[in-house]
Amino acid sequence: MFENDYFQKLVEADNLTGEVTEVNSFIIIVKGLEGVPLGASVLFEDGQRGYVREVAGDRVTLFNINTERMALGTLAVVEQDQLQVPVGRELIGRVLTPLGEPLDGKGAIKTAQTSGIFNDAPGIMARSPLNEQLVSGVTAIDSFFPFTLGQRMAILGDSKSGKSTFLSQLAAMQSTTGQIVVYVLIGKRKADVEKLLRGLRESGAMDHTIVVQADIFDSLTQTYLAPYCAVSMAENLWYAGENIIVIYDDLSSHAEAYRQLSLLQEVDPGRDSYPGDIFYSHSSLLERGGKLLSNMKALTPLPVILTPNDDITGFLSTNVMSITDGQIVFDLGIFRTGKRPAVNAGLSVSRVGGNAQSKRRKRLSGTLFKSLAAYKQAEEFSHFSSQLSKETKVDLNIGKYVNQVLQQPPEELWTITEQQLMLETVLLSGGEVDLDIPGLKKYVKEISKTVKQDDDADLDKVEAELVKKFTVVKEEEKSAEDKAKEGETPAAPADKKPDDKKPAEAPKEPEKKEEKPADKPAGQPASAEKAQVQVLAKVEEKSHA
Prior knowledge:
six-stranded antiparallel β-barrel, 16 helices, 37% helix
């Protein structure tokens, strides 16, 4: 009778049936489905599917999942009481549509498990406090605004300010932690999708990532359902004993799709023409994250919000910030100055990140904030004076080297130990010596494997050696004795003129002094040793204090 055999089987099973009476783009009105539950999946005889959005007697409003084309009089049958998506470990490493259909050309998804997409969030009694750090591999984030597993952290910024780059770094870093990433691409352009997927494959992150894709060419309904489908896939693995990170990139496009669907449905618009329940739609989504008391595993939601012109006071951004436990703000103005990542330290905050830090790490974060504040003040002051005090020069030096450590290209990733060694080495130098930061970064990768993270004495010893090893002496700072040893003749002072009345005397050869054995490396100037000794002496005093 019907061309669609599956449709005929559903009809023969006495499932509720109806007929399409009205069509308005993706909004479909069906009569005859009286008693159908909200959220049910409906199959049309032409093979398209719908999602039940509203029920008023025998008048049922559906969102068409596939296209905005539907002929009047098309027959419909209830497929399931709740829209289902495939779940399970078989999805890891795959690129899928929101309904779980493969997009990567690797064949069908072989999983027997399914789940509804609008599941309830865990209750308060089922949750555990958040106290484990989520390492992103980005020094500016992990040291200043640390994430915890299970924390809802908003990522805000204008277009092309570095949000997706940071999230790609975070996803790649999880290859060392064994955590699974569910990356949801909502309303993205094809070029952006391909760029992200290429980056995930090149970094190896794809091996532990599920990508759920709803680009600009997909239907508004799929764009709206994408984050709910993705978190359902993540929840299945979470309850099975895995730590999961869900990246919603981005909820601004999701809200835009929902606004268009609501306007087509003739729902009364609220602020900025968004539907009145936009806050509920996002809060119910993000509340599904957290840490379970039953297995001590966490699901970490990271919603991304677009902030045009770096304005974080918009409707959507303030909504999401009120739901989450902190936010990282990427500033386009900072990005244009060349700083990577372009994090706005004044607007970013992590409200529970300190729970995952040791006392030493907390102390380091506080010192870094003070050092960068002093650097900014000293930098502004240096524009108005050519003669700077010693304290101002120290602040400028420390701030300069801290910023060099924080500067991080996309291909670089750092562990917590490596970050701590680099930053504490800069602070340990006291700003009184010049440091070779590129050399320090390269060497830290090697030596960090031998450092005991929880042993303060071991960290202090290694950092003192790093200060000594990577201190650089400028040519103009060498003493006359250093230059004489290298065979150079010290230049006469510029303001001292030769006496014409006295005959010129031949320069005396420097006396050869008997060299005593020293601890300094061969070829190291005496001034460098002196500076190092002073710095290390101060370090010793601090450690005893």
